[in-house]
UniProtKB/TrEMBL annotation:
UniProt keyword annotations, A-Z: DNA-binding, Transcription, Transcription regulation
Location of the HTH lysR-type domain: 2-59
InterPro entries for this protein: LysR_HTH_N (IPR000847), LysR_subst-bd (IPR005119), WH-like_DNA-bd_sf (IPR036388), WH_DNA-bd_sf (IPR036390)
Protein's organism: Herbaspirillum lusitanum
Protein name: LysR family transcriptional regulator
Length: 301
């Protein structure tokens, strides 16, 4: 039976055309090497070398065998490379979920840098609302997510990328539109457009708690699952809203964004299941944190 060591012996002799030098490279003595080559020739039923006292040459069969075994060793090297890279997160596949607001700040830079650093990772992106993303991460349908930190992290690991303040978004002609900054208490009589608590409980609670700490509970007139939809509805004059600072990137002509006095903060994090052993998860999480340090906008510094 032909073993890998027989092929290694054969290729070393073929490349040196000298049994003594080949034996030295292989760290064995010459007689066992000679016997192993003879056993290989017997197994193949073909002479691989023409031997004389002065020289060793490959036969036609030996040249063909050398060419064919080259492919075997290339395949072995690929296999070795794949094992190393897949175990270190340098190759493989990665399913990434993201909430839409991250597309206005961190997501484009992270995916661009990660794809450049790990070109052998097959990365697939899917847009989610926060609560469904957390559920799919827990269920193993998604490897990693960029999202607001979930209410229940008991089955999840996380790495905070950044925290961002909430801003007030107002219709363009709102009475407070000309002020440089406002207190949320000044919106006590306004109707609010909000994300439902079932979709993003952490953000919903931060908004309600901030209003209550300023003396009122917000009158929620409309609810929408996506932050950009909320901003659009505000622009249509259907209420006011508190949204993450990143939503300023929408640049709508119908709305104005105003800093809040003592603005509450929301954390954006990389989230993954504690039981997920995909090594690409950690390389993605580390890339997200590192990229944000380099590219974060001045408003976050």
């Amino acid at each position: 039976m032909i073993e890998l060591r027989h092929l290694t012996y054969f290729r070393t002799v073929a490349e040196t055309l000298h049994f003594g030098r080949a034996a030295a490279l292989l760290h064995i003595s010459q007689p066992p090497l000679t016997r192993q080559i003879a056993a290989l020739e017997k197994e193949l039923g073909a002479q691989l070398f023409d031997r004389s006292k002065r020289s060793v040459q490959l036969t036609a069969a030996g040249k063909n065998f050398y060419r064919d075994t080259t492919e075997i060793f290339k395949a072995l090297e690929r296999a070795r490379h794949n094992v190393i890279t897949s175990s270190t997160g340098k190759s493989g596949s990665l399913k990434v979920g993201f909430m839409m607001s991250s597309a206005y700040n961190i997501l484009p830079s992270v995916t661009r840098h990660y794809s450049a650093a790990f070109p052998e990772v097959d990365m697939r992106l899917s847009e989610y609302v926060p609560n469904l993303l957390a559920t799919d991460i827990e269920d193993g349908k998604v490897d990693v997510g960029i999202m607001y930190r979930p209410e229940d992290c008991s089955r999840l690991d996380s790495l905070t990328i950044f925290s961002e303040p909430l801003l007030a978004v107002l219709p363009k002609y709102h009475p407070l539109a000309g002020k440089p900054a406002i207190s949320v208490a000044e919106l006590a009589e306004d109707s609010f457009v909000s994300i439902p608590r079932t979709i993003a409980p952490v953000v919903f609670d931060i908004i309600v708690n901030h209003c209550q700490s300023n003396g009122f509970r917000p009158r929620i007139k409309l609810e929408a699952n996506l932050q950009q939809t909320i901003v659009n509805l505000v622009g249509e004059g259907l209420g006011v809203a508190l949204v993450p600072a990143s939503m300023q990137a929408m640049h709508l002509d119908t709305t104005v964004f105003k800093p809040l006095i003592k603005a509450p903060m929301v954390e954006v994090a990389v989230i993954w299941n504690k039981e997920n052993r995909n090594p690409c998860v950690r390389t993605f999480a580390d890339t997200a944190v590192e990229v944000w340090r380099k590219v974060k906008p001045a408003a976050y510094k």
